[in-house]
Design a protein that fits this description.
Oligomer: single chain
Number of domains: 2
Helix content: 40-55%
CATH architecture of the largest domain: 3-Layer(aba) Sandwich
Structural class: alpha/beta
Largest sheet: 5 strands, parallel
Strand order of the largest sheet: 6-5-7-8-9
Shape: elongated
């Protein structure tokens, strides 16, 4: 953003009868499509009674903006829409267009159950199991217990291995990660895996150097070391690439990728085969 460019701020009120995660993700995805537009988010989760809705409407009145909701209950929906009409505010039922289209296609009736997408079903417990696995196998932990992994991410320090594993876990994928540390041998167990997708993460040396320096600054660590030495960092990246090539592991360049984009690329590899592929940033 240049000095002559001004951002447009606006209030967006997200009203949900569940956790609000779906609504929040949708709102952020849509707002990201507009340049220099920055939403001020107000989230009202688990709104399931008139009293809770009245409190939300009072807050909405104090900060006029746009209201987006995923309220299922017909009476609460009507009350919210009437309240917004009284306040002369735009009220958008976020899921309605997609739900209506899908209902017409399927010829199926809609459920009125609240929070059904967060039901404690097998998928939920699988995600929790995957999350526990990711935490227990972060940064080379878990030792020999890599056989249960669906995905193993390999990379030098600060290539977003941990957050990518956590994101994959939320998608129900059991993911572990193994760090490549100079002077430390790669665990032999890694080369014996037959059922896991092993993915090598790479990054440009310049970008890696910047990330590591920022990391040390955040820790108030000012000592010089090979961790932020330009030549050493470049050599780490080169050695990692040679390792990936030697074993035929698919490679994802995370230089210009968000964690979500890296995870999506891993999922594409997981669902499309384990052949040697390089996904550039």
């Amino acid at each position: 953003m240049t000095a002559s460019t001004f951002a447009t701020y606006f209030h967006v009120h997200l009203v949900s009868d569940s956790t609000g995660e779906t609504l929040n993700a949708m709102a952020r995805a849509v707002c990201a499509r507009f340049e220099n537009v920055l939403p001020i988010e107000h989230i009202y989760a688990l709104v399931r009674s008139q009293r809770q809705l009245d409190r939300a409407l009072a807050d909405i009145e104090e900060a006029p903006g746009i209201v987006i909701h995923t309220i299922v209950d017909a009476e609460l929906r009507h009350a919210l829409e009437e309240g917004c009409r009284r306040l002369d505010m735009t009220c958008i039922p976020a899921l309605d267009p997609l739900v209506s289209a899908l209902s017409r296609y399927l010829g199926a009736a809609l459920t009125s159950r609240i929070g059904v997408q967060h039901a404690l079903d097998n998928d939920y417990f699988n995600r929790m199991d995957a999350l526990n696995y990711a935490i227990g196998h972060d940064d080379g932990q878990g030792g020999q217990d890599l056989d249960a992994a669906e995905v193993v991410l390999v990379g030098v320090s600060r290539t977003s291995k941990t957050p990518t594993c956590i994101y994959l876990a939320h998608r129900g994928v059991r993911a572990a990660n193994v760090p490549l540390v100079p002077g430390r041998p790669v665990p032999e167990r890694l080369f014996e895996l037959r059922n896991a997708l092993i993915v090598g993460l790479t990054v440009s040396p310049d970008r890696l150097l910047q990330i590591r320096r920022n990391r040390l600054l955040s820790l108030n660590e000012k000592r010089e070391s090979s961790y932020i030495d330009a030549d050493a960092v470049r050599d780490e990246v080169i050695q990692a690439r040679r390792l990936y090539e030697k074993h035929g592991w698919p490679v994802i360049d995370v230089t210009r990728r968000s964690v979500e984009e890296t995870a999506a690329a891993v999922l594409n590899l997981l669902h499309g085969g384990h052949g040697q592929v390089e996904i550039l940033g």
